[in-house]
Amino acid sequence: MNFTEDFLHFIWQFRLFKTTELYCAGGEKLELLSPGVLNKDAGPDFSHARLKIDDTLWAGNVELHIKSSDWLLHSHGENGAFESVILHVVYQHDQEIYHRNGSLIPVLVLKDLFSDHLLYTYHSLVNNRNAFPCEKQIGSVDQIVIENALSRAIAERLQHKSAEVLTRLGALKGSWDETFYYFIARNFGFKVNAVPFEMLASSLPQRIFAKHKNNPLQIEAMIFGQAGFLNAELPDEYSKQLYLEYTFLQRKYGFKPIDVSLWKFLRMRPQNFPTVRLAQFAALIVSSSHLFSKILELKSLKEIYRLFEDLPVNNYWEQHYHFRKATKHVRLQPGPASVQNIVINTICLFLFTYGKYTDQAHFMDRALVFLEELPAERNMIIDQYVNSGVRPDSALMSQALLQLNKYHCSQKKCLNCGIGIKILKK
User: Fold this and answer.
1) Where are the domains of the chain?
2) What is the CA radius of gyration of the chain?
3) How far is residue 172 from each of residues 80, 205, 281, 356, 382, measured CA to CA in Å?
4) pTM for the full model?
5) C-alpha separations of 392 from 37, 309, 384 in Å
6) Which residue from 43, 195, 226, 266 puts its CA 20 to 30 A from 202's CA?
């Protein structure tokens, strides 16, 4: 035996065991009318089950365990919610269990009621070393099953990410502008430098920029200064100007820069270095005041992409990828893949979350339309599924695949996935 209670839940929920000529461990005849509804919260595993024991009809809850004695191990006898259990379903019956009133809880033993093939298929899914559990089988699964699983995954992803936005919104006292600024800053760091960008945004509220909107040098000075890159020993005229501006602004606002060692440069092309990303971020701040309000007004992807075109990035960065470090040429503008990443992970997310929060469905619809219009992302994770025959046709579907991979496939939660269930039920 090598499986979890989730496997027993799966067998019970989909009746993947012998359901005729059933008998309880005590010899009573059992007829299963309905297995009930799986409960993912506290309390018994299934509610609203209906069954017949001998000549008596029962309606109530069902609890499942590997061993009967797990009832005591989990202290169910001390929880009144389990007094409504009408059947105890177990793999191995090793102990009689009673309700508080002394009545014996009927037991159904599943050990010899399901096929070895089912258990073998389950083990072949969750115990292999493939890129994802069903890598070898997903090609034989009907497209409609895959699409349904991805639809569920994208809904789950938007719910999770929206909750994260709303948590930050609460921390920022309901300011959508500051919340959007925080998330787009994090996005400019992409995965490698997301954390220092978050820390930078937290240490430098967007509202301060409004007081300096006509002075790009001061905005650049605040961003590079708070990022920890400015000091008195910088050699060239531009960096010295930034340092002088920052020291003045630091005294004015009481700024405390983050630790410069947090920024990562290894294994990156110069245009992806955090210094270049910071310069691009500063240019976006300079060119777009009230950025979130502007995003809400834009009704097409073309309009959104224009926000990231011809950003007024200081020309210093065309010949430098770091202070003190010159180079022949660095691309000043964010590339198409970078802009698409920001549109997917920040702009569409905020349109959806804002629409849901304010009960304005047209913003939610706009976010979903944008995701459907954008091409599917390509990365190592997505490519694993593509190589197995899954063809995401939009960013909406590639986002769904990323969700499926992170929260189901990588955690071997095949029993909670429509694709895994379909494979196991074959």
Assistant:
1) 5-114, 172-373
2) 29
3) 41, 10, 21, 19, 34
4) 0.86
5) 32, 28, 12
6) 266
**Which residue in the block uniquely carries the two structure tokens 């497209």?**
143
Distance between CA 38 and CA 122 in Å, rounded?
Answer: 20
Q: How confident is the model at residue 56 (pLDDT cuts 50, 70, 90)?
A: very high
What residue spans of 227-327 are helical by DSSP H? 237-253, 274-287, 291-297, 301-306
210 token code pair? 């409004």
User: And the tokens for 71?
Assistant: 């009832």
Question: Tokens 């509202």, residue?
Answer: 207
- What is the average pLDDT across 176-191? 97
CB 14 within 8 A of CB 43: no
Region 84-95 average pLDDT: 96
Q: Give the position of tokens 């839940």.
A: 9
Span 191-203, pLDDT tens digits: 999 999 999 999 9
Model confidence at 290, pLDDT cuts 50, 70, 90, reads confident
Tally of helices (H runs) and strands (E runs) in the chain: 18, 9
Residue 186 is encoded by which pair of tokens? Answer: 């994090």
